[in-house]
Amino acid sequence: MIDTRPCEPQAQNLRLPPWLKRPLAPAGALRELEASLIDAGLHTVCAEAKCPNRGECFGRGTATFLILGKICSRACGFCGITHGTPQPLDKDEPRRVAAAVAHMGVMHAVITSVTRDDLPDGGAGQFAAVIRLIKQDLPSVTVEVLVPDFCGNSESLYTVLNAGPHVFNHNIETVVRLYPVVRPQAKYGRSLEILAKAARHEVQLNVKSGLIVGLGETPGEVFSAMGDIRNTGCSLLTIGQYLRPSKDQLPVEEFVTPEQFDEYKRQALAMGFTEVSSGPFVRSSYRAEEMANGKKLTVES
What we know:
Blueprint: H1 27-39, E1 43-44, H2 45-48, H3 54-59, E2 64-67, H4 93-104, E3 108-113, H5 124-137, E4 142-146, H6 154-162, E5 167-169, H7 179-182, H8 188-200, E6 206-213, H9 219-231, E7 236-241, H10 258-271, E8 275-279, H11 288-292
Parallel strand pairs: 2-3, 3-4, 4-5, 5-6, 6-7, 7-8
Antiparallel strand pairs: 1-2
Helix pairs in contact: 4-5, 5-6, 9-10
């Protein structure tokens, strides 16, 4: 059995509350899917970021593909993905991702990436190539992308948008006050502008964003961030608990209660978001197909 429960907070006296404890996931499905992806030379954000839902998602035959390598050019305070000098661009990667989507029988493909500030277009061309290849070879598959900020480069943003993803996701992640610590190489206003440009784009698509909580923000700050996101025209929102991937990342400041997550959802729907997933185990791509299709999401325990 592979334990996919979140790690205990390190260097703190916080204990995991009952609502953050999950059963062990069956090892077979995890190993089979991980092995097939490794054989294809592919990565998933599920494994690289140590997502607590990877047991459930892998067990259902779904995964979020991580393109542009597995080494990020940035070092965000909350993220467990390795940072450093990225690898050279792999031009065959789009073909392998499309082949893996077909092999797995995925009907809603989620594509994300590490941040590649070292590339002139931030990796936008690779995103576009993956989108177009999946749409060409697998026309019944819907495509969702979760993109970095491309350093605010509008040309890179439109390269992705013009490829025609069905869902465009860019996460705000946290409240404006915490940006210098949580996302020191990003800008709150720049990320909001990315969402606004996507919402105004001539090719119609669903625009999505996400927040993680438990980093020391107040509910009022979360409500304010939700309002900022909604004002961009973004219609889909995810809110989940921050869980420290390792001792190298920021500590957990608070375990937000399920009741508070419910309140965030109520307020977000009142602001005009059409779909909101808010809960301790919610992540930006968790059950993304259900959210994109407007289905009720129930987090499994």
